Amino acid sequence: MPSGSSIKDGLRPIVHRLRHRRDSLLCGSCAVLLYHRVTEIPTDPQQLAVRPAHFNEHLAVLKKNYHVLSITEFDELLLKRKKFPPNAVLLTFDDGYADNHLEARPILERHGLQALFYIATDHIGSGREFWWDELERMFLVNDNLPMDLAFARDRVRINWSAPGAASSVERGSTYENQLNVMRRLPSALREEILGELRVVLNSAVARTTHLPMSVEQLRAFSGSPSVVLGAHTLGHPSLAHLSSNEQQHEIAGSKRALEVLVGMPVKYFSYPFGTGADFNATTEALAREAGFLHVAANYPGMVHARRSPISFPRYLVRDWEGPQFSKEIQRFFRR
Ligand SMILES: [Zn+2]
After folding, report:
1. Is the CB of residue 83 less than 8 Å from the CB of residue 305?
2. CA–CA separation, 109 vs 224, rounded Å?
3. E-state strands within the chain
4. DSSP character for 162?
5. Cα–ligand 1 centroid distance for 95 (angstroms)
6. Which of 63, 186, 228, 254 is deepest in the core (most CB within 10 A)?
7. Which residues of 102-138 are buried (b: 16+ CB within 10 A; e: fewer)?
């Protein structure tokens, strides 16, 4: 016979679903979609890229069957707790890749749609790849890996030696480990360590296919009617692993930096990585204090006006063809 607590545990998802249904009926709901890149690249271990042809198909599906909100429409509905229209969708992008300007923007403009782009500002104009892409370049696609390596700096420890040095298995596990270690480091320390690794791993040259926007590109980008900008920290750390001061520096600092870069106020923010392990109550308090109107996280779920505008959910979009995208988005609305 089930214990009282297991009955309660079993009921929890049902109660959650019913509550969500009730809130959706009362307030309507909106699927916020999360993209990163619109481009075609040969390797993509984090599945961040959507091919331009597929992105075009996604927008065609959205225009035909959904109500894609402008950013000010979304603000009005969420912040004034109004009812979302049926089939409401908001488009968002994280990070600030150059392809957002070169590939995604023209497609959005052709369809007359708008998206909210969250920018990790230290990467803009750096001429360097985003740090997770640097790890891919150094460990997964590097033809000049040294045969022996013993590297130790702070929490970053990498060791291998011949024979069988840096086999594909070892490369893969080192890459995965370093992604986990480096997301928890303060951005300045991670940058120092990456600088040393570029030298010892013989991999200093950034791939032109993986660049963030230059300052000029960001400025031109910000002038498009299809583009609204938000901040996404300075160096893209997992905020929950930083001290309160470091978090404040990353959150408020990226708002200020972006405002200086584009010369307009910045009202929006999204957490790097954005899962429940990447932000905490301090992060949420600091985001409110910085004056953002709303803040996006990265866990699946529908947004409605009964939900807090801080840490709202989003659905990750992958490189789906149009029909697959259509099925996936229907599934989002059925949850
Ligand atoms: Zn990001």
Report:
1. yes
2. 8
3. 30-35, 37-38, 49-50, 67-68, 88-95, 115-119, 149-153, 156-160, 227-231, 268-270, 294-296, 310-312, 315-316
4. S
5. 5
6. 254
7. ebbbebbeebebbbbbbbbbbbbbeebbbbbbbbbbb
Q: Quote the longest CA-to-CA distance of the chain.
A: 67
Query: CA-CA distance, 332 to 335, in Å (whole number)?
Result: 6
18 alpha carbon to ligand 1 midpoint, in Å?
32
Instruction: Assess contact for 192 and 80: CB atoms under 8 A.
Output: no
| The pTM of the whole model exceeds 0.85 | yes
Q: Which of 19-23, 154-158, 271-275 has the highest mean pLDDT?
A: 271-275
| 232 CA from centroid of ligand 1 (Å) | 7
CA of 271 to the centre of ligand 1 (A): 7
CA distance 314 to 297: 7
Delineate the domains of the chain, giving CATH numbers in brackets: 4-127+210-334 (3.20.20.370), 131-205 (no CATH)
Average of per-residue pLDDT values in the chain: 93
The confidence score (pLDDT) of residue 27 equals: 78
The owner of tokens 């600088």 is 195
Residue pair 52/316 in contact (Cβ under 8 Å)? The answer is: no
Residue 177: partners with Cβ closer than 8 Å, 6 or more residues away: none
Cβ atoms 100, 77 nearer than 8 A: no
Q: Are 312 and 299 in contact (CB under 8 A)?
A: no
Q: How far is the CA of 288 from the centre of ligand 1 (A)?
A: 19
Two structure tokens written together for 60: 């065609």
Task: Give CA–CA dist 45/6, Å, rounded.
Answer: 39
Where is average pLDDT lowest: 10-24, 66-80, 149-163, 281-295? 10-24
Nearest in space to 140 (alpha carbons), one of 238, 207, 51, 185 = 207
pLDDT in tens, 293-322: 999 999 999 998 788 899 999 999 999 999
